[in-house]
UniProtKB/TrEMBL annotation:
<keyword id="KW-0324">Glycolysis</keyword>
<dbReference type="GO" id="GO:0006096">
    <property type="term" value="P:glycolytic process"/>
</dbReference>
<dbReference type="InterPro" id="IPR000741">
    <property type="entry name" value="FBA_I"/>
</dbReference>
<dbReference type="InterPro" id="IPR013785">
    <property type="entry name" value="Aldolase_TIM"/>
</dbReference>
<dbReference type="GO" id="GO:0004332">
    <property type="term" value="F:fructose-bisphosphate aldolase activity"/>
</dbReference>
<protein>
    <recommendedName>
        <fullName>Fructose-bisphosphate aldolase</fullName>
        <ecNumber>4.1.2.13</ecNumber>
    </recommendedName>
</protein>
<comment type="pathway">
    <text>Carbohydrate degradation; glycolysis; D-glyceraldehyde 3-phosphate and glycerone phosphate from D-glucose: step 4/4.</text>
</comment>
<comment type="similarity">
    <text>Belongs to the class I fructose-bisphosphate aldolase family.</text>
</comment>
<dbReference type="Pfam" id="PF00274">
    <property type="entry name" value="Glycolytic"/>
</dbReference>
<keyword id="KW-0456">Lyase</keyword>
<dbReference type="InterPro" id="IPR029768">
    <property type="entry name" value="Aldolase_I_AS"/>
</dbReference>
Length: 341
């Protein structure tokens, strides 16, 4: 079992490839579809995601895995083909979000803990049978006045580790996602301090829960200035701070690091990832696991209309290719001007 986990984890960070996060909850996808004037029906959600998954150029060349929502894992395309089969036919690995969302943390105003451990063993077994081969669990850590608390950091780290152990027990590679949020006026130095504390706590708990690190991926935030910080750090400073923080906290045994975009613009997320790979050597591959930063152009290009599918898929393939270049440290602003392959 351990060997299969390692094989899957390494396949998910194959050179030049990254992960598409298409695991938006029903409420989140409703907002995304509303932004283009489309009602969030099951059919609309199916059509949108099918458009992405049938972008064979993007999936076969640049996307190693797709994180799905429960509905999508069980869903069939318009022609009756299961979504997981469409994904797998491109040589891409299906995965599944298994947490049930971040809820207010009792006794800690303004902070949250991610729930979903109850019944997780049974869900993981079922998800494996449905074709998933990896999982994702997201914890959110806010920076603010007196935040984060030690309680918040350690409660979320413990939950992430328990989740990871249960996922591996079922033969699923766990993506461990402790996200330090960008929201606020904090400096990049404050983000570094919090991210370092969070990652240290997470790996302490993963060790305590006997998680096999070689069969895991880390999905962290980049070390960034807060969205309201008046003096925001540049690309090379972000790359330096992020890689330094990871080297201080993440064991070399981890199979790979796939960053979340966390509210960055499409090009910001790509530029930061490329700078890390171009300027720094690391013990693990550094790649991407983006949601909105991969999907936004395709979503607006699609607009809910069948006649726009081809152009939307081209936009998606272009964004995937840009991030593939970034995963090799070869992205450039000039490449953004090229048409999708």
């Amino acid at each position: 079992m351990t060997g299969k986990l390692q094989d899957t984890a390494h396949a998910m960070v194959a050179p030049g490839k990254g992960i598409l996060a298409a695991d938006e909850s029903t409420s989140t996808i409703k907002k995304r579809l509303a932004s283009i004037g489309v009602e969030s029906t099951e059919e609309a959600r199916r059509d949108y995601r099918e458009m992405l998954f049938r972008s064979h150029d993007a999936l076969s060349n640049y996307i190693s895995g797709v994180i799905l929502y429960d509905e999508t894992l069980r869903q069939k395309a318009a022609d009756g083909t299961p979504m997981v089969e469409i994904i797998a036919s491109a040589g891409t690995i299906p995965g599944i979000k298994v947490d049930t969302g971040a809820k207010p943390l009792a006794g800690c105003p303004g902070e949250k803990v991610t729930e979903g451990l109850d019944g997780l063993r049974e869900r993981c077994t079922q998800y494996y049978e449905l074709g998933a081969r990896f999982t994702k669990w997201r914890a959110v850590i806010a920076i603010g006045e007196g935040l984060p608390s030690r309680t918040c950091i350690h409660t979320n780290a413990h939950a992430l580790a328990r989740y990871a152990a249960l996922a591996q027990e079922a033969g699923l590679v766990p993506i461990v996602e402790p996200e330090v949020l960008m929201d606020g006026p904090h400096t990049i130095e404050r983000c570094f301090e919090v991210t370092e504390a969070v990652l240290n706590a997470v790996y302490d708990e993963l060790y305590a829960q006997r998680v096999v690190l070689e069969g895991t991926l880390l999905k962290p935030n980049m070390v960034l200035s807060g969205t309201e910080c008046p003096d925001r750090a540049g690309v090379e400073q972000v790359a330096e701070a992020t890689v330094t923080c990871l080297k201080r906290t993440v064991p070399a045994a981890v199979a790979g690091v796939v960053f979340l975009s966390g509210g960055q613009s499409d090009e910001e997320a790509t530029a930061h990832l490329s700078a890390m790979n171009a300027l720094h050597d690391t013990p693990w591959p550094l790649s991407f696991s983006y949601g909105r930063a991969l999907q936004a152009a395709a979503l607006h290009g699609w607009g809910g209309k069948a006649e726009n599918v081809a152009s939307a898929q081209a936009a998606f393939a272009h964004r995937a290719r840009m991030n593939s270049l970034a995963a090799d440290g070869r992205w450039s602003a000039a490449a953004e001007q090229e048409k999708a392959a």
